[in-house]
Amino acid sequence: MPGYYPPGYYGAPAPDHPQAVVVLILGVMSLVFCQLLGPVAWIMGGKARREIAESNGAIGGSGMVTAGWICGIVATAVILLAILFVVFAIIVGAVGASQ
Q1: How buried is 43 (Cβ within 10 angstroms: 0-12 exposed, 13-18 middle, 19+ buried)?
Q2: Which residues cross the membrane (predicted)?
Q3: pTM value?
Q4: Radius of gyration for the alpha carbons in the chain, expressed in angstroms and rounded
Q5: Distances, alpha carbon 30 to alpha carbons 3, 34, 37, 60, 87, in Å
Q6: Residues 6+ apart with CB under 8 A from 62
Q7: How remote is the C-alpha of 18 from its chain's centroid?
Q8: What is the pLDDT of residues 13-40, one digit of tens each?
Q9: Neighbouring C-beta atoms of residue 13, cutoff 10 Å
């Protein structure tokens, strides 16, 4: 029928969050190149996830934001473990040198 959508058509999908791609890129880069970007991806991803949830479906991109957010969390954990390892190595080295 003219003027009607075909059956099963529910309209265009919601536009992605403006920072969805940025969060995803920062998250992946934090795992591959520079772990210092991890906290940035984690914070930006958390903010974007909150905005998407509060939009009640008006904003999309949840998958990209969540992936970048998780990558940011993992990269932050890796950098914290590396810092703890360095501190532990310094302590062990100082104790071993004093004996």
Answers
A1: middle
A2: 20-43, 64-97
A3: 0.80
A4: 22
A5: 49, 5, 5, 23, 22
A6: 17, 49, 52
A7: 14
A8: 888 889 999 999 999 999 999 889 999 9
A9: 9
